[in-house]
Amino acid sequence: MQAGIVVGRVWATQEYESLKGKKLLLVLPTTWDKKIKSNDPIVMVDTVGAGAGEFIFYVSSREAAVACGGNSLKDTPPVDAAIVGIIDGINLTEEL
């Protein structure tokens, strides 16, 4: 899992059938102490109801498709990243 901050939303008039009804958000990847790693946002499927400005954690690759559900290959969306949690707080120790 990785951390990020939601910075926007994506709308599409045409989309893959199994993505219909799913919210797509733009996320900037961050470190766990909220330092931005890249200024290039990633489009992610929201599975938890995240909103603008929220600190989230996400999964990528195959785990992202699994997080979006589906019972077969046909109804599993072809996604690279999915938001799977909204972070309320983090306790980092000095000894990393």
Question: Can you walk through the features of this model?
Answer:
The chain is mainly beta and 96 residues long. The protein has a domain at 1-58: OB fold (Dihydrolipoamide Acetyltransferase, E2P) (Beta Barrel). Helices cover 6% and strands 35% of the residues. It has 1 helix and 5 strands. It has a 5-stranded mixed beta barrel with strand order 1-2-3-5-4. The radius of gyration is 14 Å and the shape is globular. The two termini are 17 Å apart. The model has no long low-confidence stretch (mean pLDDT 90).
Ends apart, CA distance between termini: 17 Å
CATH homology-level superfamily of the domain at 1-58? EutN/Ccml
Q: What is the H-and-E element order?
A: EEEEHE
Which radius of gyration do the C-alpha atoms yield?
Answer: 14 Å
Helix content: under 10%
The CATH class designation of the domain at 1-58 is: Mainly Beta
Count of DSSP helices? 1
Largest sheet, in brief, is:
5 strands, mixed, barrel
In terms of DSSP E residues, the strand content is 35-45%
Structural class: mainly beta
Spatial order of strands in the largest sheet: 1-2-3-5-4
Spans of at least 5 consecutive residues whose pLDDT stays below 50 are: none
Return the CATH topology of the domain at 1-58: OB fold (Dihydrolipoamide Acetyltransferase, E2P)
- CATH architecture label of the domain at 1-58: Beta Barrel
Mean pLDDT: 90
Shape: globular
- By DSSP, the count of extended strands is 5
